[in-house]
């Protein structure tokens, strides 16, 4: 049986987490890419919970995974609904028009 060290799993989750973080920081124009980057962050956290749950032989990490998956599913559903409504109104999903309105009010 093939065994994988926890160091490999943790390094993989760090890479996935930083890819999601870079996606949020560098791309601030497209709402859809920001939502996908948030999903990558949550995936990395879930993999960490699973790895430590297996490593420590504890079920609490797997229970947390269920909660995080529920939150991620709701976040995606609400985010996609907002994007759909915004696209119907503006025919674009770029964040520049929203930012201009916010900065004018402040």
Automatic annotation (TrEMBL):
Membrane-spanning intervals of the chain: 6-26, 33-56, 62-89
Biological process (GO), any one: ATP synthesis coupled electron transport
Gene that encodes the chain: nad4L
Protein known as: NADH dehydrogenase subunit 4L
Keyword Cytoplasm assigned: no
Gene Ontology cellular component terms for the protein in this record: NADH dehydrogenase complex
Predominant location: membrane
InterPro entries associated with the record: NADH_UbQ_OxRdtase_chain4L/K (IPR001133), NUOK/Mnh_C1-like (IPR039428)
Topology class, membrane: Multi-pass membrane protein
Family: Belongs to the complex I subunit 4L family.
Localization terms from the record: Membrane
NCBIfam families documented for this protein: PRK05715.1-2 (NF004320), PRK05715.1-3 (NF004321), PRK05715.1-5 (NF004323)
Organism field: Berkeleya fennica
Pfam families recorded: Oxidored_q2
GO MF terms, alphabetically ordered: oxidoreductase activity, acting on NAD(P)H
Alphabetic keyword roster: Membrane, Mitochondrion, NAD, Translocase, Transmembrane, Transmembrane helix, Transport
Stretch forming the signal peptide: none
Keyword Membrane set for record: yes
């Amino acid at each position: 049986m093939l065994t994988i060290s926890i160091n490999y799993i943790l390094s993989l989750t760090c890479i996935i987490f930083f890819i999601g973080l870079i996606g949020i920081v560098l791309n601030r124009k497209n709402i859809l890419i920001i939502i996908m980057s948030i999903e990558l962050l949550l995936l990395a956290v879930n993999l960490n919970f699973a790895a430590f749950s297996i490593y420590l032989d504890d079920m609490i990490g797997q229970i947390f995974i269920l909660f995080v998956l529920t939150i991620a599913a709701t976040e995606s559903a609400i985010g996609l609904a907002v994007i759909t409504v915004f696209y119907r109104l503006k025919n674009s999903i770029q964040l520049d028009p929203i930012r201009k309105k916010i900065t004018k009010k402040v």
